[in-house]
Amino acid sequence: MTDYPTALGASSRETITLLGQDLARDVMGTVGFGELAFWLATQRRPDPGEVRVFEAVLAALADHGFTPTAIVTRLTWLSAPDSVQGALAAGLLGGGSRFLGVTEDCGRFLHEVVAALDELPHGEPGWDAVALDVVRRRRAAGALVPGLGHHVHKDGDPRTARLFQIAHEEGRFGPHLALFEAIGRVHPKVLGKTLPLNGAGVCGAALADLDLPLELLRGFALLARTAGLIGQLAEELRHPVANDIFLSVDLNNRPVDPDPQPQTTQPRTT
To answer: Exposed (0-12), middle (13-18) or buried (19+): which is 1, by Cβ within 10 Å?
Structure first.
């Protein structure tokens, strides 16, 4: 008979084990949810400093107001109030390159740069030189720098400075955060304008410095946003707006003639 080894949850008639611990005795009421999420992903128990940085990231990403993910969650709940899982899933499925996905994009981008260095720079001047080269190459390639710019916080995203501070306080300000901070200092020399380092990007840098799997960075953003979407549904129960959003579109649509897309491929010939 084939067996399936796992270090995660397993049950017997008398006990439940999780990460080698007795769930009821050693985990419940003892391990916080943020700490447990980190532990599950890495299969090592984080120290208090890692937990503080990780939970600061989760708080930073939990809710951003009436974003598309929040609106679609509320609208799905309006359509199917019997399916809270459907409403939450709808919102989470909207986590992509424009919302939430920047966390993973920035973490991967920074890691590629850091991993390619022969040795890590010492001090701001060294990181500034690396950042300047990176921003110039992205500009020459016509590519954006992940984590740079914000549609609301034009003068600076308040989450960024705070996460830098927390990481410094906990001794978790590593090369990814150092490079991201340097990009914030040098990019005006290349772009000719000053853009803010956004919160989603700094969260990706912080998660990369915690050595969390790069493939799961968006998953942590989605974990945080799940809490926010539950909050959106709870507020929808108390102060519903989904029906107003629906009616504002439904009662104000304007019929127009079809607008065919131009043909982009040559017709087949014989």
So the answer is: exposed
